[in-house]
Design goal:
There is one protein chain. It is built from 11 helices and 25 strands. It is of the alpha+beta class. The chain has 4 domains: 57 residues, no CATH class; 135 residues, no CATH class; 140 residues, no CATH class; 93 residues, Arc Repressor Mutant, subunit A (Orthogonal Bundle). The strands form 8 sheets. Strands 15, 16, 17, 18, 19 and 20 form a 6-stranded mixed beta sheet that branches. Strands 8-9-10-11-12 form a 5-stranded mixed beta sheet. Helix 1 packs across helix 3 and helix 7 packs parallel to helix 8. The termini are far apart.
């Protein structure tokens, strides 16, 4: 005898019977409801185990369709009693965007009422689709019902119902116990089991209704956008209350031979808006005058529609407007278009400026070279005259001793360091190591760059900077590094001896 247990059998009268509704043993007069089986069943109704049907002989049948068939019969019986079948809620949503890119969305939920008057099992809707049950309501509405016990409908099944345009739901009984009785099954089928729409014509109708509402709302929103733009356009034409625009600038970047960079920029501004605005789909088009002499086109349009804006070949000022912003310079975004001739003109100006600056570099280089050569060839007295003149000080009457590692006197090297590294350089970081090998000081003094001379200079300048630090002229920021604090002391004599 098979161990397969099922709770439902098919009676000789063609009615599905629960194990609790039949006589014990072979007297149950039931066969297996499986289409491929139909073998006699035995009702096992002992006192120790849950009651169940088993096959009289071993057939290999699993009895999978028993609950499926029972549920279909429950629907058929319930229709004869004019009972209500709970349907899933109908959710309709529709969204679209206005011309500013803002989303407008609407949603509705309907709770349908379906009171059955008739139900028929295994209804052929077309050659590829047979519904488990087709029921009819008191309003004459037809509804296909699919029972899900082991295999749910996939997208292919949903599309089949969409193709025939028949309302259809699927009731999920996959979680029910195998021995659920008739009353429990009835409650599950009619009310509590999860259910979903496979196809719902009312959902389509609901979404069409929502689309109409959303589209009408967007039409009104867009109309308001354009009305606001027209008000702005007319206000611009008065040339009295022009918003605080951030005017877009044109820039050209250039690099000099010494790797320095400079920028030439212009910021064209409208000096007069004309009163000749014409509407187009996303705003208004007009004309204006830049810098009181250049005629341009102007396009005032709702934000997010730049790609839809068509322009001619003449210079055009594009003004996008975002009414969601409440600050002028954020509400309006400006950009120029078709201004190649302006850019070419600015490029010529930048090139002329480049030539001028390059010549200035040449002149400075020549002047610098001449000064270096003059200073380098001068005697110590003349060198001190030059340095003291830069500081506005009288030179010392007597020069100090010559220092080999600096190739100059004590007075000259200390005054040179003060003039070129400290004087007027407040906040500047100086380092004894760097000063001892400084290229500018080397070019002026012509000192030796060998290691021994370098070490001597480093120690000398390090000692001197430490003394300046003790006097409060410098602030120590490292072992050999100092920050200039007091750099323009008129009475300080950099060549003076510091104890």
């Amino acid at each position: 005898m098979s161990e397969v247990k099922i709770a439902w059998g098919l009676g000789v009268d063609g009615i599905m019977r629960h194990i609790s509704e039949v006589k014990k043993g072979k007297a149950c007069d039931c066969v297996c409801p499986s289409v491929n089986c139909s073998s006699p069943l035995i009702a096992n109704q002992g006192s120790k185990k849950a009651h169940y049907f088993s096959h009289k002989a071993h057939t290999g049948c699993g009895g999978e369709s028993a609950l499926h068939l029972a549920a279909k019969q429950v629907l058929e019986d319930s229709a004869s009693e004019n009972l209500h079948l709970i349907l899933p809620e109908i959710h309709g949503t529709y969204s679209s965007t206005d011309m500013a890119g803002e989303t407008v969305e609407k949603a509705l939920v309907q709770v349908p009422n379906f009171q059955m008057v008739k139900a028929q099992q295994e209804v052929k809707l077309n050659t590829a689709l047979i519904a488990d049950v087709v029921s009819q309501s008191t309003k004459g509405e037809n509804l296909a019902v699919e029972i899900f016990v082991t295999n749910a409908k996939d997208e292919v099944g949903e599309r089949k119902y969409s193709a025939v345009d028949v309302d259809a739901i699927e009731i999920d009984l996959s979680v029910l116990p195998w021995n659920v009785d008739r009353n429990e099954l009835k409650v599950f089928v009619l009310k509590t089991a999860n259910r979903r729409w496979l196809h719902c014509r009312k959902k389509c109708q609901l979404e069409k209704k929502l689309k109409l509402q959303v589209d009408n709302e967007i039409i009104e929103i867009n109309r308001r956008y354009l009305a606001n733009l027209y008000t702005i356009a007319k206000s611009l034409s008065t040339n009295l209350n022009i918003p605080n625009f951030t005017w877009p600038s044109l820039t050209v970047n250039k690099e000099l031979s010494n790797s320095e960079r400079f920028i030439v920029s212009r910021e064209p501004k409208v000096t007069h808006f004309n009163d000749d605005w014409l509407p187009f789909k996303y705003g208004y088009k007009g004309t204006a005058v830049v810098e009181k002499k250049v005629n341009i086109d102007v396009v005032l349009f709702v934000v997010n529609n730049l790609r839809q804006v068509m322009t001619h070949s003449s210079p055009t000022l594009l003004i996008s407007y975002d009414e969601q912003m409440n600050i002028d310079n954020l509400q309006f975004n400006l950009r120029w278009k078709n201004i190649d001739t302006w850019r070419e003109k600015l490029e010529k100006i930048a090139n002329a400026e480049l030539i001028k600056k390059e010549q200035e570099i040449v002149n400075r280089t020549q002047k610098r070279s001449a000064f270096v050569q003059y200073f380098k060839n001068a005697n110590e007295t003349v060198k001190m005259q030059i340095l003291c003149k830069k500081l506005g000080l009288r030179q010392p009457e007597q020069l100090s001793k010559y220092v080999y590692c600096w190739n100059s006197s004590w007075d000259v090297w200390r005054t040179a360091v003060w003039v070129y590294k400290i004087h007027g350089n407040k906040g500047y970081i100086i380092d004894a190591n760097d000063i001892a090998s400084d290229p500018w000081l080397e070019s002026l003094l012509g000192f030796s760059i060998d290691y021994e001379a370098y070490e001597s200079r480093r120690k000398m300048v390090g000692f001197w900077l430490k003394k300046l630090f003790e006097l409060g002229y410098l602030k120590r920021v490292g072992w050999t590094k100092y920050e200039v604090e007091s750099s323009q002391l008129k009475s300080f004599l950099p060549w003076s001896y510091i104890r």
